[in-house]
């Protein structure tokens, strides 16, 4: 009897160890992937692009609402385990539900190279995106700008926004890692282009739970300061307040 107990206990212990190791390895791979995305996001024209859709495919494209999100690693959902928990996916589900399950499509592009190389940014790379003809465009930028030349950055940001004058509604957010000067730059760019403005910096400053490192330690500090699942939910809620008003006013 004792031999049987030892045998089954040993087998159970081995299975637990294997299961734990596989989870740890998978998590490490995921974190490594996230770190690579952050470190290399400026090396390509678009280091990350994605398309999400809330419809079933049976709905007519004539009633489809289209979002275009130009952002950085935050819009890429770099820290969430399930991409359905990033703010873009949460946002389009909210919009769809508000409009009686209207099909909503979102295209996301990481253009953090604009934040880092705004001085010589080539706007021509964005031309293919104009053909998408979005109803709403969100500019979630500024976190990677190092405050080298505020006036030039402001001018280049305004040019970036004006490149998409065909969008019905343009939304500029503050940087999640807000700083007074950087927030003001984005706010002024919104004013100069008649765009809406959403302040996300209050989430980072006043609600520490929005950070991925609130309950978990990250070796990469920058990675941990990204919004986690709760932070993504709060970002979506902040932006949806504005879009909800646009829906009520029948702007979209």
Structural summary, described in words:
- There is one protein chain.
- The chain has 252 residues and is an alpha/beta fold.
- The chain has a single domain, classed as SGNH hydrolase (Rossmann fold), CATH 3.40.50.
- Helices cover 46% and strands 12% of the residues.
- The protein is built from nine helices and six strands.
- It has a six-stranded mixed sheet with strand order 1-3-2-4-5-6, with helices on both faces.
- Helix 2 packs parallel to helix 9 and helix 5 runs parallel beside helix 6.
- The longest helix has 39 residues.
- The protein is globular.
- The N and C termini lie far apart (72 Å).
Task: Provide the fold topology.
Elements: H1 2-40, E1 49-53, E2 65-71, H2 87-98, E3 104-110, H3 112-116, H4 127-130, E4 136-139, H5 150-162, E5 169-173, H6 180-192, E6 196-198, H7 201-206, H8 221-224, H9 229-248
Parallel strand pairs: 2-3, 2-4, 4-5, 5-6
Antiparallel strand pairs: 1-3
Helix pairs in contact: 2-9, 5-6
Any key phrases for this structure?
single chain; six-stranded mixed beta sheet; alpha/beta; globular; Rossmann fold; 252 residues
Question: What's a concise summary of this model?
Answer:
This protein is of the alpha/beta class. Helix content is 46%, strand content 12%.
Strand order in space, largest sheet: 1-3-2-4-5-6
Overall outline: globular
Q: What amount of the residues lies in strands?
A: 5-15%
Cα-atom radius of gyration: 21 Å
Please name the fourth-level CATH homologous superfamily: SGNH hydrolase
Average pLDDT figure:
84
CATH architecture grouping: 3-Layer(aba) Sandwich
Into which percent range does the helicity of residues fall?
A: 40-55%
Structural class: alpha/beta
Low-pLDDT residue spans: 13-43
Distance between the termini: 72 Å
Total of domains: 1
- List the secondary-structure elements in sequence, H or E: HEEHEHHEHEHEHHH
Instruction: Please name the CATH topology.
Output: Rossmann fold
**Strands, count:** 6
Q: How many helical elements?
A: 9
Largest sheet entry: 6 strands, mixed
Please write the CATH class name. Alpha Beta
């Amino acid at each position: 009897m004792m031999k049987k107990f030892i045998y089954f206990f040993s087998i159970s212990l081995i299975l637990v160890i294997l299961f734990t190791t596989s989870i740890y390895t998978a998590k490490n791979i995921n974190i490594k992937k996230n770190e690579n995305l952050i470190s290399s996001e400026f090396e390509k024209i678009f280091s990350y692009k994605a398309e999400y859709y809330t419809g079933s495919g049976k709905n007519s494209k004539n009633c489809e609402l289209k979002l275009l999100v130009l952002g950085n690693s935050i819009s890429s959902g770099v820290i969430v385990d399930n991409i359905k928990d990033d703010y873009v996916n949460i946002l389009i589900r909210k919009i769809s539900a508000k409009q009686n399950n209207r099909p909503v499509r979102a295209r996301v592009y990481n253009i953090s190279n604009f934040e880092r190389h705004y001085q010589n940014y080539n706007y021509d790379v964005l031309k293919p995106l104009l053909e998408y003809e979005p109803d709403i465009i969100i500019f979630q930028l500024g976190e990677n700008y190092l405050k080298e030349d505020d006036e030039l950055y402001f001018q280049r940001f305004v040019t970036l926004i004006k490149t998409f004058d065909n969008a019905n509604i343009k939304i500029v957010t503050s940087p999640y890692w807000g700083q007074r000067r950087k927030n003001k730059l984005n706010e002024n760019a919104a004013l100069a282009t008649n765009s809406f403005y959403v302040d996300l910096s209050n989430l980072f400053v006043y609600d520490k739970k929005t950070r991925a490192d609130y309950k978990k330690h990250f070796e990469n500090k920058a990675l941990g300061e990204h919004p986690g699942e709760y932070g993504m939910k709060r970002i979506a809620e902040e932006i949806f307040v504005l879009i909800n008003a646009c829906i009520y006013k029948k702007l979209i």
